[in-house]
Here is the input.
Amino acid sequence: MQNHALERIRQRGLQINQVRECLLNPDKVLKSNNVKKAAKKLNNKALVVVYKALNKEA
Here is the structure.
């Protein structure tokens, strides 16, 4: 994760493991062009992580 993402996680009072769980086991994934949104229910709220998948072949 980049510093920007880590700072946002801290600002929102989240834990890194919550974000990882959302990315690894999302309830729903929305795709739009190069951006993906992983969503997971967390304590009666929705955690949505917006990310770009890196092309490992490049």
About this structure: The chain has a mean pLDDT of 89. The first helix runs from residue 3 to 11. The two ends are 19 Å apart (CA to CA).
